[in-house]
Protein: NAD-dependent protein deacylase
Organism: Varroa destructor
Amino acid sequence: MSTNTSSFIDPDLMKGVEVFRNILKKARAIIALTGAGVSAESGVPTFRGSGGLWRTYQATDLATPQAFRKDPVLVWQFYHYRRELVFSKSPNPAHEALARFEKECKSSGKQFTLITQNVDGLHQRAGSENVIELHGSLYKVRCTECNVISDNHNSPVCAGLAKETTSLDELPHCGRPGCGGLLRPHIVWFGESLEPEVIEKARKALDNCDCCLVVGTSSVVYPAAMFAPELARRLVPVAEFNIQTTPETGNFQFVFQGPAGETLPKVLNLNLST
């Protein structure tokens, strides 16, 4: 597949930008798939690779149901740290560009769906509304007994987690009458499957879309990694926005390389009604 690659290091806007803008103007249902690279530009760590340590623990080792069963206090302390860290961060120009673009789509009668692998809520804080969170949210909790999911934007999530050391009894528990079960972060951990209803919503959006933006994702975490390549095989125009190439870059029609906070605002700076 021929790929239009545009770099914003060069001050001249390359032809691929205008070609893609024309596609956006004609599209009726647009999807943006976002990953950790978007949040990284706000200073949110990805917790992957050599930098993925929290205290002396490999962060990915704590994000498992086995770790929670073994030491729920430790896992909750890790997620308390993550929540408080994100509370201190702000949406960046990439988040803001997508939120503005969604409003532009609405005013132009287009459908826009943002499917994210991120759990930090920065898209919503920027103003995005139609967001599908594939991997859950740091600001939702789920009861391990009754499975009820609820929002929790408290800082801290419970008083016990504000202390340096805490106990199981001081962790957040379900407030439903007759339950009182231990709450867990509503996050899809390693070894767990995505929620069927979330996958169904994402699939419906993917089936209906006629243009796709892939932003800040490494295209290696499944099932999200297969979404854009599937669209490309259906000849749906796909544009990748990333600081580096990914295993799927060659399958996409457009590639805008550089920080998403720089490339997205420039590419999406258009009036869809003209």
Observations:
- The mean pLDDT is 90.
